[in-house]
Amino acid sequence: MTSPRVAFFGSPAFALPVLEAIREHFEVVLVVAQPDKPVGRGLKLTPPPVAARAAELGLPLAQPKKLRGNVTFEERLRESGADVAVTCAYGKILPGSLLTVPRYGFLNTHTSLLPAYRGAAPIQWALIRGETVTGTTIMQTDEGMDTGPILLQEPLPIAPQWTSLELADALGAQASRLIVEALSRLSDLSPTPQDDSRATHAPMLVKEDGFVRWGDDARAVVNRYRGVAAWPQTTAFLGGARLKLGGLSLAEGSGQPGEVLRVEEGGLTVACGTGAVRVRTVQPEARKAQPAQVWAQGAGVGPGTRFDVWEPDPA
């Protein structure tokens, strides 16, 4: 087949490397991103990174507020002449009527080894749940939530020190390479149905997902810290006051969950349900992050002090 004309659907910075890789090898006839949103204290209307980049490049851009029942946008996609559409972290559900507009339908770059971690936050939940391998799947989009057949899939080992920030970078590079391969092989890729019985889910994170569960095993506490590093970050409570914690790692020691065992130059050592973790930085509300030892000295925190033990409400 001749080189396909591509419509690209994406919004956040994560999608930019994928857009750039596609643009380098194929003609991008339309970029679709979420609408501009108010950002910052001044609530300045700001385009998502993909929209801003498309404008810089002079690419045709659409930012529809809704897709379902949007006949005008459907017609614009049709008139773009796209042979195939690619989605990468676009952030909206695609209606069935839209999926059939391009001749080769929609391909999605999903950052997990489907059917594992279907949903909005596969990178974060893979880390929170202690996975050592994840990967990228290029799938044919259907009307379900990441349920379409698999076209290409490649594993990626997770380095033990990676947070969601580093893992996102690695998966973005992998997705960029795989989508170019998929688009180059559109006519000879063989779709493989997913095994729904093996599906796991990765729902969108909420702020409480970043709250430290001191009663958990120390490794689980560190894994959660890794998973929420981009957002909502790691939050602990002391006397009801919120504190952002940074640089968590495994440490030696045992005690009551949330109990400070040691205060030293390298940070605080805090007991968990099993084992302990070291905390390198602490950020009180409305203040800058500081070395944990400096914060502890100023706050009168020492061995025997206990962080509040927060537990999620039972489902």
TrEMBL record:
Substrates-to-products reaction catalysed: L-methionyl-tRNA(fMet) + (6R)-10-formyltetrahydrofolate = N-formyl-L-methionyl-tRNA(fMet) + (6S)-5,6,7,8-tetrahydrofolate + H(+)
Pfam families: Formyl_trans_C, Formyl_trans_N
Keywords: Protein biosynthesis, Transferase
Region annotated Disordered, chain positions: 291-315
Residues binding (6S)-5,6,7,8-tetrahydrofolate: 112-115
Taxonomy, superkingdom: Bacteria
Matches recorded under PROSITE patterns: GART
Formyl transferase N-terminal domain location: 5-183
The protein's enzyme class: transferase
InterPro entries, A to Z: Fmt (IPR005794), Formyl_trans_C (IPR005793), Formyl_transf_N (IPR002376), Formyl_transf_N_sf (IPR036477), Formyl_transferase-like_C_sf (IPR011034), GART_AS (IPR001555), Met-tRNA-FMT_C (IPR044135), Met-tRNA-FMT_N (IPR041711)
Domain annotation Formyl transferase C-terminal: ranges: 205-299
Coiled-coil residues: none
Gene3D superfamilies in the record: 3.40.50.12230
Function, in words: Attaches a formyl group to the free amino group of methionyl-tRNA(fMet). The formyl group appears to play a dual role in the initiator identity of N-formylmethionyl-tRNA by promoting its recognition by IF2 and preventing the misappropriation of this tRNA by the elongation apparatus.
PANTHER family the record matches: METHIONYL-TRNA FORMYLTRANSFERASE (PTHR11138), METHIONYL-TRNA FORMYLTRANSFERASE, MITOCHONDRIAL (PTHR11138:SF5)
Family label: Belongs to the Fmt family.
Protein name in UniProt: Methionyl-tRNA formyltransferase
Organism, scientific name: Deinococcus aetherius
